[in-house]
Specification:
Layout lengths: L1 H6 L1 H24 L22 E7 L5 H13 L6 E7 L4 H13 L4 E4 L8 H9 L4 E5 L12 E4 L2 H18 L7 E7 L5 H14 L5 E8 L4 H14 L5 E4 L2 H13 L11 E6 L2 H8 L5 E4 L5 H12 L7 E3 L4 E3 L4 H4 L5
Helix pairs in contact: 3-11, 4-5, 6-7, 8-9
Bound molecules: alpha-L-arabinofuranose (AHR).
Alpha-L-arabinofuranose binds next to helix 3 and strand 9.
């Protein structure tokens, strides 16, 4: 407890103020004899005596663009419940950075104990994170990273090793081509990228690019922006199929985009179901994609683990106990291929 006071004096002051406000509200209620001019605090009011002991967590989610994102949101909401001692203020920024900045400012003015947020893109957060720091509110990043001048603007980051996911995809493609005896052939690749400037897009592109650089016969025809959504990927893949006759490989930076690309392939008369028309590598590991790995439509799927709530809570509990935390936590992830996928499908909830 002593430690905590040392690390987060502003937060302890906020808690004391919340406690005082609650006492004052109770006293006023008592003195007024429940007069009609003073209403009892709402159940969800942060300043009720009940909430005084809860840890107030403001979560800014970047949107709901994918199946992965929905699972990620559920994993956070499952953890921060009143039963577990938390008061969760959740905001969905609907894919707009200005909405996220607004949400963070609102968390700061509500004096939350912790800010948790998954930034849409890496740049543009210095000012608002400085405001959080000045208010003494620790910021925990999940899923995506920020690119800020001062690294002390956030306490820790919990998420996936996106660059590793990209290099693994390259290594899997090497093995696949080797297995098909095509390692010397010219290989034409198209990439469907996710949100411009976001960590998974940057990391997966960089990682895969490192392996491409090792193969003179691998040619990236185009990297198109599919925005991590099925609709945009469908549109972009249709365009790519019209522009390039000979696409051997599709690297799709998430499963939702893969579903859109598959629609486009079918519409263009290609037969992805045959498994030998085009090599598809996808990311996330959603149930529907795993089924497509099992049936051979997707060659391999690199898991991006959305179940980050439990790690978040662990970090908050450590901070509450005044313990040291790491700067980076990578969540565990698997690679799904036809050889191992069957055993994972049944338990997949998203
Ligand atoms: O940041 C994680 C990525 O964002 C997932 O791969 C994707 O599905 C999501 O939209």
């Amino acid at each position: 407890m002593k430690n905590r006071e040392k690390i987060y004096p502003a937060r302890n002051l906020r808690r004391k103020l919340r406690g005082a406000a609650a006492l004052l509200a109770s006293a006023l209620l008592f003195l007024s004899g429940c007069s009609s001019r003073i209403s009892a605090p709402e159940e969800d009011d942060m300043r009720t005596p009940v909430d005084e002991n809860l840890i107030v967590v403001g979560v800014s989610q970047l949107g709901s663009e994918s199946v992965w994102r929905t699972a990620n949101t559920a994993s956070i909401q499952e953890v921060f419940t009143k039963e577990k001692g938390y008061f969760l203020i959740f905001d969905n920024a609907r894919q707009k950075q200005e909405n996220q900045i607004k949400a963070l400012r609102s968390f700061i003015s509500q004096e939350v104990d912790y800010i948790i947020f998954s930034p849409l893109m890496e740049e543009g957060w210095d000012t608002v994170l400085q405001e959080a720091k000045d208010a003494g509110i620790p910021v925990i990043l999940i899923d995506r990273m920020v690119d800020v001048e001062d690294p002390s603007l956030y306490s820790t980051w919990i998420g996936s090793d996106f660059e590793k996911e990209g290099t693994e995809a390259g290594r899997i493609l090497e093995k696949c081509l080797e297995g098909q005896g095509r390692q010397e052939e010219d290989i034409n690749i198209v990439v469907l990228k996710g949100t411009e400037g976001s960590s998974p897009t940057i990391g997966r592109t960089e990682g895969f690019g490192q392996i491409v650089a090792l193969h003179e016969n691998w040619k990236i025809l185009e990297q198109a922006d599919g925005e991590f959504t099925t609709a945009k990927a469908r549109e972009e893949m249709s365009r790519l199929l019209t522009k390039y006759e000979d696409i051997d490989v599709l690297i799709s930076q998430n499963d939702d985009m893969t579903f859109g690309a598959l629609d486009a392939l079918r519409a263009a008369g290609r037969s992805p179901e045959s498994g030998d028309d085009i090599i598809i590598l996808s990311f996330d590991g959603t149930r529907k994609a795993l089924e497509l790995v099992e049936s051979g439509v997707i060659y391999a799927d690199l898991e991006c683990n959305p179940q980050q709530g439990e790690y978040l809570e662990e970090v908050i509990q450590k901070l509450e106990a005044g313990q040291e935390i790491e700067r980076i936590y990578y969540v565990p992830e698997k690679i799904f291929t036809r050889d191992n996928v069957s055993r994972y499908i049944e338990d997949r909830t998203y």
